[in-house]
Structures are given as structure tokens and as C-alpha cells.
């Protein structure tokens, strides 16, 4: 992990100050930027009253404002007493959730601000004690108090997303094991319905008849990429062309701008959320003339990679550089175009839960984590588009 944690513990017995301030400097960690901006006012107002403590806050404020790193010389000078550097990988600080971390920062800043700006010694001492208590509470939460299993299963297209969420959740609750069975969206919905899964995973919206027993919660959006061999000359297709190709009305690549050759249609098996999403959006439900119907997203990608005449579809989050993605009506499949709706072939990633069952404490904790803003960067890293930011 880039950057470092600076833990500054500054005490002045004569006025009862006991302040704790934790700052994480890391250019990629955008979730700390708003927190530092919220500390901006307090830092500016109190800089003169608490030179050793608030001067570093001002340095942090300035760094945020001008998008620069906090000067190392300030770090050493202002935090000389009690300064401690954590290299991210093995520090317990890595396990503190973002929400807990920001709570600690806010409490510490409040303690410093009250004391520096004229509060009484007793008031400052009380506030600082409260900050210390909050810090202890957050550290306790960081270690994780839950245990047990959370059973998830379903959509194979959600593999990367569920893996990222599981890894992130393990940092908050290391005692909880989240299992994932990639059986397809239909099986995920069935598992939630018959209560064999805590959380079913579906890469399509629930149908009306399915909503009687289960609820669906969208955790992310996914573009369904249209993929061809990297040797293909076709770079763009319309939805109408796709419809005619997959129903067999257009059978030769030369009719859509490619070389002469019979089109080989590769798709997913019946019950696949990716297939259901593609066929519903393109309006080819149950009428596709597939040459191959495969049981996993990775298998579709491999089949298209191996055949210069093949065309298929796959989740954006699963597509690498082994195949080419064609644009659809001039719009590429990307996070931005999926989020703004300009890319037409997209679908939701859904958590499915049984209406009649109360989730276990650990399952509810995982559900809450996955649907919170804290998980946005994890979802984005997995190639999908977060809906909660």
C-alpha cells in the first residue's frame, strides 16, 4: 500500500489536552479527501493556538487544496514527539473501516478545536476524553467481532465483484467467511427463494413472479460487452444489426463490414443472467441461433478469442485484452457510458434475499457493507459500476 499512516499523540498537562489525530496520505484513496476538507475550517481557525498539533493539520489542508503530498519535513517537525509511521500492509490500521476512521478523525479534530479556540480546560479535557473513547470503540470495531458463514451464489458474471467485496469485508470482519457458488443467476434466485443461500446473486432484474418471495437490491451496474476476435475488422454494430445476426437473418460478416465468412454465434446457457439480459435488451428472447451455448462467462470469452469468425457477449467486468469489444451505435462499453445510460446493452447486479427470513448478523453486515458507499471503489476495481457513492 502506498503512503503512510501518521499517528500523532500530543499532550499538554497544563491545559488538559489529550488529542489524537490520524491522517492517511495516499493519492489514490479518494475517500479521505472529503474528510480532510471537512477538517479544513477547524485547522485554519486553530493553527495559531495549537502550533504543534494544528500546523500539521494546516499542512494537510494545503496539500488537499493544491493536490500535493504533505511535506515530509512538516511531518517530522510537527509530529516529532510520539510520531509513528505505519507501512500499510501489516498495520492494524489497515483493518479500520473508513467510517470508523473518519469518526475518530472527526472526534479528535473537535477536541483540538474546542481547546484551541478558547474552551475551558475542563471542557477540553472532557471532549478529548470523548475522542479517546471513540477511538477505542473504533479500534474495537476494526478488529471485528462477528464470526460464522455467509452463503452466496448465483451469477457467474458477478465473480469479480463478489471477490472484491469479500476481500474488502474481510478487513472489517476477519472472523466471517463469505462463500460463493457460481451457479448462474437462475440458481441464485432459486437459492434465495428456497433459503439455501443467505444472499442470491443475479445479473438481471427480478421478474414479477419472482418478487413474491424475494427482494432484489441493486449493488452495481454492468455493461454487457459485445466481443469479437482481435483479428475482426468489425468495430461497430447497431442494436438492429445485432438482432439480425443473432436470429440468423444476417449470417455473413461481409454484410456488416467484415471479411467474407460465416458468423459463429457464441452465447450462454439457458438460465444465465447475461444471456437473459442480452436477449431482452436486443429483443431476441428465445430466438437466437447459437452455434455454442456455454456455461460460464470465461468460456464464452475463450471461444470468441479462438475463432476469428465468432461473436459473443460477456460482462464488461470480465472482459480482458484477449478479445476486442465492438462499439454499439458508436458508443463504447465503459463505466462512464454504462452509468450515464448512453451504452444501451447494460444490466444490474442484484443481491437477492428472502422476504420471510431475517438475515444472520454476519450476513446483514456483509449486505450493509456491499451496498454502502464504502464498497464503491472495490466494485469499480472489479470492473463494474457502483450505484452507491
Label this structure with key terms.
elongated, 22% strand, D-Maltodextrin-Binding Protein, domain 2, 3-stranded antiparallel sheet, disordered N terminus, 389 residues, single chain
The percent of residues in helical segments reads: 25-40%
Strand content: 15-25%
How many helices does DSSP assign?
13
Detail the poorly predicted runs.
1-99, 113-125, 134-143
Describe this entry's structure for a reader.
With 389 residues, the chain is α/β, with parallel strands linked by helices. It folds into three domains: 140 residues, no CATH class; 113 residues, 3-Layer(aba) Sandwich (D-Maltodextrin-Binding Protein, domain 2), CATH 3.40.190.10; 124 residues, 3-Layer(aba) Sandwich (D-Maltodextrin-Binding Protein, domain 2). It is built from 13 helices and 14 strands. Strands 4, 5, 6, 7, 8, 9, 10, 11, 12, 13 and 14 form an eleven-stranded mixed β-sheet that branches. A three-stranded antiparallel β-sheet has the order 2-1-3. Strand 4, helix 6 and strand 5 form a beta-alpha-beta unit. Helix 1 crosses helix 2. The chain starts with a strand and ends with a strand.
Brief overview:
This protein is an alpha/beta fold. It folds into three domains: 4-143, no CATH class; 148-221 and 348-386, 3-Layer(aba) Sandwich (D-Maltodextrin-Binding Protein, domain 2); 223-346, D-Maltodextrin-Binding Protein, domain 2 (3-Layer(aba) Sandwich), CATH 3.40.190.10.
Amino acid at each position: 500500500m502506498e503512503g503512510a499512516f501518521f499517528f500523532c499523540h500530543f499532550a499538554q498537562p497544563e491545559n488538559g489536552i489529550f488529542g489524537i489525530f490520524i491522517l492517511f496520505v495516499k493519492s489514490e484513496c479518494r475517500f479521505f479527501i472529503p474528510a480532510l476538507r471537512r477538517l479544513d475550517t477547524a485547522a485554519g481557525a486553530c493553527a495559531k493556538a495549537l502550533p504543534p498539533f494544528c500546523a500539521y493539520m494546516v499542512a494537510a489542508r494545503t496539500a488537499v487544496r493544491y493536490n500535493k503530498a504533505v511535506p515530509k519535513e512538516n511531518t517530522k517537525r510537527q509530529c516529532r514527539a510520539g510520531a509513528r509511521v505505519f507501512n500499510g500492509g501489516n498495520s492494524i490500521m489497515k483493518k479500520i473501516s473508513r467510517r470508523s476512521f473518519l469518526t475518530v478523525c472527526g472526534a479528535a479534530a473537535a477536541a483540538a478545536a474546542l481547546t484551541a479556540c478558547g474552551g475551558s480546560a475542563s471542557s477540553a479535557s472532557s471532549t478529548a476524553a470523548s475522542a479517546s473513547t471513540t477511538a477505542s470503540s473504533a479500534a474495537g470495531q476494526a478488529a471485528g467481532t462477528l464470526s460464522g458463514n455467509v452463503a452466496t451464489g448465483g451469477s457467474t458474471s458477478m465473480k469479480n465483484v463478489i471477490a472484491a467485496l469479500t476481500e474488502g469485508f474481510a478487513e472489517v470482519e476477519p472472523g466471517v467467511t463469505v462463500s460463493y457458488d457460481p451457479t448462474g443467476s437462475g440458481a441464485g434466485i432459486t437459492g434465495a427463494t428456497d433459503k439455501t443461500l443467505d444472499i442470491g446473486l443475479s445479473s438481471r432484474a427480478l421478474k414479477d413472479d419472482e418478487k413474491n418471495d424475494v427482494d432484489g437490491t441493486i449493488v452495481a451496474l454492468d455493461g454487457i460487452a459485445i466481443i469479437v476476435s482481435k483479428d475482426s475488422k468489425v468495430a461497430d454494430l447497431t442494436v438492429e444489426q445485432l438482432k439480425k445476426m443473432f436470429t440468423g437473418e444476417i449470417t455473413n460478416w461481409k454484410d456488416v463490414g467484415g471479411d467474407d465468412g460465416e458468423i459463429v454465434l457464441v452465447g450462454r446457457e439457458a438460465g444465465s443472467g447475461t444471456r437473459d439480459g442480452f436477449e431482452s435488451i436486443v429483443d431476441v428472447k428465445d430466438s437466437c441461433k447459437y452455434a455454442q451455448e456455454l456455461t460460464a462467462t470465461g468460456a464464452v470469452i475463450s471461444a470468441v478469442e479462438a475463432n476469428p469468425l465468432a461473436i459473443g457477449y460477456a460482462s464488461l467486468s470480465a472482459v480482458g485484452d484477449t478479445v476486442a469489444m465492438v462499439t454499439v451505435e458508436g458508443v463504447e462499453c465503459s463505466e462512464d457510458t454504462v452509468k450515464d445510460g448512453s451504452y444501451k446493452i447494460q444490466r444490474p447486479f442484484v443481491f437477492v434475499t428472502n422476504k420471510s427470513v431475517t438475515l444472520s448478523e454476519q450476513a446483514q453486515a456483509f449486505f450493509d457493507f456491499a451496498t454502502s458507499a464504502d464498497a464503491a471503489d472495490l466494485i469499480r476495481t472489479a470492473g463494474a459500476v457502483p450505484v452507491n457513492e
